[in-house]
Amino acid sequence: MSSPITPAVRAEIEAAVGPENVISDPDKTVDYGHDEFSMKEIAHEPDLVVRPGSTAEVAAVLRIADARGIPVTPRGGATGLCGGCVPVRGGIVLSLERMARVLEVDADNQMAVTEAGVRLADFAKAVEESGLYFPPHPGDESAMMGGLVATNAGGSRAVKYGTIRNYVRGLELVTPAGDILQLGGKLEKSSTGYNLMHLVIGSEGTLGVVTKIVLHLKAKPGIMRSLVVPFEALEPALETVPLIMKRGIVPLAVEFLEIEPIVLTEEHIHKKWPTKLGRTHLLVILDAPSDEEMDRLSQAVAEICCEKGAIDVFIADTPSKQDEVLAIRSKIYDAIKAGTVEILDIAVPRAEVAGHVRKVREVAEKYGIWLPTFGHAADGNVHTHIMKVRYDNGAMVPVPESEWRPKADPVREELFRDCKARGGVISGEHGIGLVKKPYLSIVLDERQIEIMRGIKRVFDPHGIMNPGKIFD
Ligand SMILES: Cc1cc2nc3c(=O)[nH]c(=O)nc-3n(C[C@H](O)[C@H](O)[C@H](O)COP(=O)(O)OP(=O)(O)OC[C@H]3O[C@@H](n4cnc5c(N)ncnc54)[C@H](O)[C@@H]3O)c2cc1C
């Protein structure tokens, strides 16, 4: 049972963080009741938004909330796509926005220490200025570092460089009881007891609040080049991907795209994709230390694509061509957002992507619904979009709600069951949050969920941390 926030409790919170950082004006709290999930009916306003400026302030707020059973939902950049930071049980939204300092870039150890409220764009810039490189690049740079850790975010570069988990070396975590835990550190190795740090990564704010993060950095890569490869049919395009990897080439990213969203994005941002040939395209992004190595890799990838029946291979080898291609890939979501009900992020073994996407097309046909599908082909992460519009000759045409709404649930469930049958999971990078919670038991057995519940109880015995997320 959650308790109301009485004037006396509010006064305690104001004393902890300063009255100017406690917000209850509905005109302002409304902005803290949703994330980027398209169906806004999941939105729920908090009773109070609290903006602590330090770890000690976070701990003080959690102690007050824990003693009274007040729900606390941590909030980063609110770019999440599954309602993770939506305060479904009301209470406090704890926004990390004021904790926005990159504290240290330690070049000798190749580590950075950052507060959780730093935006990805600002973090990447600070690292770059120091001559180093932070490879993970999930699509929305306004995400905050704490949110990236809480969801174990991925992005297209995960194929070569891994997800956020591969970079986290240390975390500062405030537990619901207000204890401040230092997990890990500037370490490349640790076999010292259970790894609580990795338990917290991907826990979606249900175990505590991440306040600081130690991240591993890489040396700057040399040069980058993008290849756009159109195929007539789906299967040969997607079967090319495991072949590239099997031959020992690890691209920075391998994205597969369908022509319809590309056309809409060209129109949306007034840029040109190199070709309209074929229905399925691969975008292969390579990085290499030298021009010679880049030429060797590009040639090898082009040969494999042609072996599998590619119509052509277009190379974006100048910065301007490269920018144009990458801009279109990164803006597809913006271009089709107005017609999107939900973005799925199923992950299957790499060699199952073709079969899964074939299933998506069958389901689209069966229900008479547009399901544009693209994603991170080499890491098996498929973004199918459930749409409330149909595609007609370069335009999105609205479909009446009475038609699309009854189809959304069965479409989602059929695709989740197909992912299970292929040994996949229902989220490769976005998390379970609120909206995928009803489907968790499709891919995880009851005993696993029970163990997760037990872990949750150890960290959060009064159930105040982001209640209603991942599982009930
Ligand atoms: C256009 C677009 C493209 C995207 N592309 C990708 C992509 O390529 N790959 C990918 O993985 N994701 C992608 N996303 C999803 C989103 O950016 C990620 O899920 C991101 O990690 C969310 O970070 P955030 O700061 O916005 O978190 P929020 O949305 O604010 O919160 C997400 C979850 O983390 C919890 N949380 C936030 N901060 C903390 C903290 N400090 N301590 C504890 N818990 C916390 C919240 O309670 C919530 O459960 C994309 C989103 C958009 C809109």
List keywords for this structure.
eight-stranded antiparallel β-sheet, 15 helices, 36% helix, alpha+beta, globular, five-stranded antiparallel β-sheet, single chain, 472 residues, Uridine Diphospho-n-acetylenolpyruvylglucosamine Reductase, domain 3, Vanillyl-alcohol Oxidase, Chain A, domain 3, binds flavin-adenine dinucleotide
How much helical structure, as a percent, in the residues? Answer: 25-40%
Assign the CATH topology of the domain at 223-421.
Vanillyl-alcohol Oxidase, Chain A, domain 3
What is the strand tally?
21
Shape: globular
User: Tally the helices: what do you get?
Assistant: 15
Largest sheet: 8 strands, antiparallel
Mean pLDDT: 96
pLDDT < 50 runs, ≥5 residues: none
CATH class category name of the domain at 223-421? Alpha Beta
Give the CA-CA distance, first to last residue.
14 Å
Radius of gyration: 23 Å
CATH architecture of the domain at 223-421: 3-Layer(aba) Sandwich
According to CATH, the homologous superfamily of the domain at 223-421 is: FAD-linked oxidases, C-terminal domain
- Strand residue percentage: 15-25%
The structural class is alpha+beta
Which ligands occur here?
flavin-adenine dinucleotide
